[in-house]
Amino acid sequence: MSSFHLVEKTCCAHHEVESLLSQLRCPALILNGSETVIRANHDFFVEFSMEESDIEQRPIDHVLGLLEKRGIQVFRVHGRHSVPSELSGSFVIESVPVLLDKEYGFVCMFVKDDATDGEGLSSTDIMDFLEHANDLVQSVSPDGRFLYVNNAWKRTLGYSAEEIRQMVFSDVIADQCRDQCSLLFQEVMRGESLEHVEVSFRAKDGRTVYLEGSCNCRFRNGKPVSTRGIFRDITEKKRIQEEQDRLKKRLKKAELFESLGLMAGGIAHDYNNILLIILGFTELLKNKLASEQDVLGYVEKIEKSARRAKALTHQMLAFSGAGRIYLEETDLSVLIREMEPSLRAMLPGHTRLELRLDEGLPLVEADPVQLKQALNNLIANAMEAIDSEEGIIVVRTGSLHVKKGFFHDAVLDENLPEGRYCFVEIADNGQGMTPDIRDKAFEPFFTTKFAGRGLGLASTLGIVRGHDGAIKLESVPERGTRVTIFLPALNTSRPSD
After folding, report:
1. DSSP letters of 119-162?
2. Is residue 127, in this structure, part of any structural domain at all?
3. Is 494 among the domain residues?
4. Among 91, 130, 245, 347, which has the highest number of CB atoms less than 10 A from its own CB?
5. Is the Cα torsion angle 8, 9, 10, 13 positive or negative in sign?
């Protein structure tokens, strides 16, 4: 005698239960809330040789009675642990709650109970395995509706069962992955089985979740009925990889700057020694030829060129960090006040300078001459970036206490310690920089101007590095640029006035 068990199981389904019923590969019935049969699938009629008139609008107990009369004994038990051992190898009726229009009903699936035959798992065991798996499992209909998602899927993305019933697959695809997922979905629907696919979903809280896995499609009579996907959350792995790539890029850039700095410093020292000799003998010639105006003019041109070359060597030394530094306790706001007349004089008429200086700043240890040169370079760069009729350059000072890692987005991350830092921020409303230009802005000999050596910002970076500081750069095309210099604040108290 064959036998069946009715095992109640908690899960959720959508109102399109008839579509679900047609996709089941086992005999199944749809019951309303009163446990009356309202529909059966084709497999049910084939398996049990029944007609619609035998079961339609009949209570489930009546149908089970008919099965018992045909030699199929039925047991209604709760939980697989209570299935009698002598009934192994029979069938199990799994009762799944579903939403029918405005009330709940059930889909009853008649599944072969082979859990104890030593050759495989029953459907209940398989479902339990999926619900407790760490990987994200989903099944999606050809029109994008979710047919099934497991607990890991819901837990990782944060959507409730009720929300999932109202969603389609495209609702969870991250914007940057839409085109890729559309192509992948089409490939799977054509019957291709995809492995090691990387996609990104949008969680309920807005996070982007990166996943890697495989997907394929189930067909019936040559037509696709559902896609199946198994994915593993690689968000943390992706974050670590991106961090490693970023650090490698910064290390490579730091090594480049270091090697160029050594080269520039060595050349500049030798070049500077040669220039000192040229300038010394030029001065002697001027004294000897005071009455020879024509020759004196030639000598003055030589001197002018030599002094320009000397200024270039100072920039190279500043970039390499090998220039002389005469450190003083300095108030950045006072320093900029001293520079204000010369700064305003260098600006064109259509650009105005606005100072927002914090009074009573902590002192920093700096070389005022070098720091003024660095600020002049930044303001000159801001001035050249402004091509509008109403340009503005804002210079702001302040101080803040930073945590470790604050400088991760600095031009060169020097892994500076946490503590209090004073800053000078120079912002303009100029043309801004594209990302590729922004990445190269502080590299030596890089310039977007027809005239210029491309050492202004590079020497500024060298000066700031020589002061154990850091620079941050923010720029958006057509919206301007903001450059901020950070210098460590001294712990000593300010002198009283």
Report:
1. S---HHHHHHHHHT-SSEEEEE-TTSBEEEE-HHHHHHH---HH
2. no
3. no
4. 91
5. negative
Q: What is the predicted pLDDT for the residue at 16?
A: 54
Run of H or E including 247: helix 235-288
pLDDT digits (tens, 9 = 90+) for 61-79: 888 888 877 776 555 543 3
Q: Identify the pLDDT of residue 409.
A: 82
Give the separation between CA 262 and CA 320, rounded to whole angstroms: 6
Task: Give the three-state DSSP class for 470.
Answer: strand
Tokens at residue 53, please? 């008139």
* Separation CA 497–CA 491 (nearest Å): 18
Question: How is 321-332 classified by DSSP, letter by letter?
Answer: T-S----EEE-H
Residue 238: inside a domain, yes or no?
no
CB 296 within 8 A of CB 289: yes
Quick one: pLDDT at residue 337? 93
In a domain, 309, yes or no: yes
Between vectors from CA 359 to CA 355 and to CA 364, what angle results, nearest 5°?
100
Same domain flag for 342 and 227: no
Terminal CA-CA length for the chain = 105
pLDDT digits (tens, 9 = 90+) for 234-245: 888 888 887 777
Phi/psi-derived region of residue 139, left when phi > 0, alpha when psi is between -120 and 50, beta in every other case = beta
Give residue 28's pLDDT: 85
Sites in the chain below the pLDDT cut of 70: 1-20, 23, 72-92, 95-104, 112-128, 250-274, 289-291, 293-294, 308-325, 388, 413-414, 444-456, 492-497
pTM above 0.90, yes or no: no
| Residue linked to tokens 């590095």 | 465
Residue with tokens 């030596």: 444
Phi then psi for 24, rounded to 5 degrees? -70, 140
Amino acid at 183: L
454 and 363 part of one domain: yes
Residues 391 and 332 in one domain: yes
The encoded tokens of residue 336 equal 């900029």
198 near 210, Cβ under 8 Å?
Answer: yes
Query: Based on the domain organization, do 333 and 463 belong to the same domain?
Result: yes
Total number of residues shown for the chain? 497
Q: What is the DSSP string of 434-460?
A: -HHHHHHTTSTT--SSSS--S-HHHHH
Give me the residue label for tokens 């002389």. 324
pLDDT at residue 116 in the model? 43
Cα–Cα distance measured from residue 156 to residue 141, given in angstroms and rounded to the nearest whole number: 21
